[in-house]
Amino acid sequence: MALQLRPIRDEEFVVWLPVLREDYAEDLVRDYGMSPDQARGKAAAEIDGHRPAGHFVFVIEVDGDSVGHLWLVERRDAYEPTLIVYDIDVDESYRGRGYGKGAMIFAEEEARRRGLTRITLRVGVRNEVARNLYRSLGFAENEVAMSKPV
């Protein structure tokens, strides 16, 4: 297995973006209890079609085949220079083989290379597989968001 991450090409980005938007909407329904219509609206508002400065998308490849994507955002503010994992996805047929873990290790190396001192991410409480991955890599849960429909 030769795992490699490379920057996404422009023509790949325009194909990937609608898929990301739909996946994000599904996550919002599953992990945050939104209705499908609410989730699609939020996903469309937050993922609007362009690549902002400071955002970096990588293709996760194994032996030359694309198996997923890693979306990173660099933030340098008064608090702490941080690399934010906006999204990581591994195609379903490739899950459970360590590719997500490899991509997260790449993210750590990328943070160090950029001189950043922290990595953060958000994960839904119902996404136990992802939470277990992040815990295994030393991430600590440091915030709990709660909601209640009224």
How would you describe the shape?
globular
Task: Please list the strands of the largest sheet in the order they lie side by side.
Answer: 1-2-3-4-5
Termini separation comes to 50 Å
Radius of gyration: 16 Å
Number of contiguous helices: 4
Number of domains: 1
Strand % is 15-25%
Order of helices and strands: EHHEEEHEH
Q: For the report, how would you describe the main beta sheet? A: 5 strands, mixed
Poorly predicted ranges: none
DSSP helix fraction: 25-40%
Category from helices, strands and their pairing: alpha+beta
Task: State the assembly state of the protein chains.
Answer: single chain
Description:
This protein has helices at 10-32, 36-46, 99-113, 128-136, and strands at 3-7, 55-62, 65-75, 82-90, 118-121. The protein starts with a strand and ends in a 14-residue tail after the last helix. α3 links the parallel β4 and β5 (118-121). Strands 1-2-3-4-5 form a five-stranded mixed sheet, covered by helices on one side. It is of the alpha+beta class. The mean pLDDT is 90.
Topology:
Blueprint: E1 3-7, H1 10-32, H2 36-46, E2 55-62, E3 65-75, E4 82-90, H3 99-113, E5 118-121, H4 128-136
